[in-house]
Amino acid sequence: MTPHPRSRRLTPLCVAAAAALTILLASCSSTGGKPDDSNNGMSAGSADTPRATIAMVTHGAPGNAFWDLVRKGAETAAAKDNIELRYSSEPQAPDQVNLVQSAVDSKVDGIALTLAKPEAMAPAVKAAQDAGIPVTGLNAGYDAWKDLGVQQYFGQDETIAGRSAGERLTKEGARKVLCVIHEQGNISLESRCAGLAQTLQGGTSEILNVNSQDMPSIEAAMTAKLQQDSSIDHVVALDAAIALTAVQSKNTVGSVATVVTFDTNSELVNAIKDGDVAWAIDQQPFLQGYLAVDSLWLYLNNRNTIGGGEAVLTGPAFVDQSNVDAIAEYAANGTR
Predict the structure, then answer these.
(1) Which is nearest to 280 in space by CA: 257, 256, 258, 264?
(2) What CA–CA distances, in Å, run from 262 to 179, 188, 281, 317?
(3) pLDDT at residue 33, as a whole number
(4) What is the DSSP string of 275-308?
(5) Cα angle vertex 298, ends 294, 300, to 5°?
(6) Rounded distance, CA 230 to CA 257, Å?
(7) For residues 334 and 69, what is the distance between their CA atoms, to the nearest angstrom?
(8) What percent of the chain shows pLDDT beyond 90?
(9) How far apart are the C-alpha atoms of 122 and 223, rounded to whole Å?
(10) What are the b/e assignments for 134-159, b being 16+ CB within 10 Å?
(11) What is the 8-class DSSP label of residue 20?
(12) What is the pTM assigned to this prediction?
């Protein structure tokens, strides 16, 4: 069910596999990218189940704070579950496919992956299945994971999230909305803007495509668009970093447009507290990473699956000035 746009409380999530998360994270990923050195995170001790290896392969861009949260959640579950986590990411689908194939070739025990471009990822998923390796999806691919035969999925329904944004924008009187897609061809991002357009009443929306790997060009594109069209009264970013850049563009132009976004990080939480960003839709990336790894551990050791054949939803929920203080501490710790 779509959360009411005026909801001021974070939507609770009931998940069968979630274990108690308490003390500081004492371990980090053994391979791929930079290890967690923040001394933040959580752990619930360590399982005495046999050591297993799980590969997590995402489409996240290097250095993006959102994917740092996904990875930290995965590392937290791995530390608890006696898992060797091999995390890697590539924004381009062919490169992501190669990473999954490498994981298959190295005979990992399980694979967690994102499906931003499902058609491109399908052969890699099949290769894992043919090798008898269980595959769990997270974050991207809500409309495709079942068709690909992926075992479980953790994320949000991006169309519902987009519709929720459109409903809230309608209530706020939006007339001209700019929806900024930072990765063309990513079905999750396209679904957000499409859902927004479906429920936006009394106004119109326009898509601006930009390249997430070139932040200066993103700022230039948004600045130029706001200069060109002073009727834009809302900018909808689909990533926290893009939202913060939109604030810079808005200030450069002197635009009165309201900036809102999907997804959060610690800097974005502060921007909400300061009033620079009005609200964000939170899908809980830390939780997505945690559950993806933990669910594979449960399957490997007890043949458990979660969700009864349906996706386990980690969002959407609105974060604004009325409830941002409830997660600010955790955002500062690097887990929200």
Answers:
(1) 264
(2) 11, 11, 5, 10
(3) 40
(4) TSS-EEEE--HHHHHHHHHHHHHHHHHH---SST
(5) 115
(6) 9
(7) 7
(8) 80
(9) 38
(10) bbbbbbbbbbbbeebebbbbbbbbbb
(11) P
(12) 0.83
Looking at residue 14, what DSSP letter applies?
-
Residue type, 278: A
State how far the Cα of 154 lies from the Cα of 138, in Å rounded to an integer.
5
Q: Can you tell me the distance from the alpha carbon of 177 to that of 205, in angstroms, rounded to the nearest whole number?
A: 4
CA atoms within a 13 Å half-sphere pointing along the CA-CB vector of 80: 27
Q: Are 61 and 213 in contact (CB under 8 A)?
A: yes
Tokens of 185: 């061809």
- Between the alpha carbon of residue 65 and those of residues 113, 119, 128, 287, 325, the distances in Å are 18, 27, 29, 14, 20
Residue 89 and residue 42: Cα distance in Å, rounded?
23
Over the stretch 184-210, which tens digit does the pLDDT of each residue have? 889 999 999 999 999 999 999 999 999
Spatial contact of 263 and 284, defined as CB atoms under 8 Å apart: no
CB 53 within 8 A of CB 111: no
What token pair was written down for 218?
């993103």
Structure tokens at 98: 């190669």
* Residue-wise burial string across 117-128, b where 16 or more C-beta atoms lie within 10 A, e elsewhere: bbeebbebbebb
